[in-house]
Amino acid sequence: MSQKTLTRMDLSESVFREVGLSRNESADLVESVLNHMSDALVAGEQVKISSFGTFSIRDKAARVGRNPKTGEEVPINPRRVLTFRPSHLMKDRVAAGNKR
């Protein structure tokens, strides 16, 4: 399996090729979309992309954890975490890609 990573540059290059905007306009468009998504998540909103999935923020409460090596109990502070739930279409598409 390939270890390639899709980057912002790859996305803007795809927009350049597929849509026909200039390279600078394509990069600005990708950056704008990512900024809108980030801003919505920071504000506590969900970001739902049809046929792809849903990004959301979850608040996790404080709890007591345990160091697996020493067994010592350690307090874990409350925090916000980003979660992603893929759509059923995305799950099916990824599963079909594994059947080679």
Explained architecture:
- It is a single chain.
- This protein has 100 residues and is an alpha+beta fold.
- Helices cover 42% and strands 27% of the residues.
- The protein contains three helices and five strands, in the order ααβββββα.
- It has a three-stranded antiparallel β-sheet with strand order 1-2-5.
- Strand 1 and strand 2 form a beta hairpin.
- The longest helix is centred in the first third of the chain and has 20 residues, at 23-42.
- The chain is elongated, with a radius of gyration of 19 Å.
- The model has no long low-confidence stretch (mean pLDDT 93).
List the helices and strands and how they pair.
Blueprint: H1 8-19, H2 23-42, E1 47-49, E2 53-60, E3 63-66, E4 73-76, E5 79-86, H3 88-97
Antiparallel strand pairs: 1-2, 2-5, 3-4
What attributes characterize this protein structure?
100 residues, alpha+beta, 27% strand
Gist?
This protein is an alpha+beta fold and 100 residues long. It has helices spanning 8-19, 23-42, 88-97, and strands spanning 47-49, 53-60, 63-66, 73-76, 79-86.
Shape: elongated
Order of helices and strands: HHEEEEEH
Helix-residue proportion: 40-55%
Q: What does the largest sheet look like?
A: 3 strands, antiparallel
Summed over residues and divided by their number, the pLDDT gives a mean of: 93
The low-pLDDT segments are none
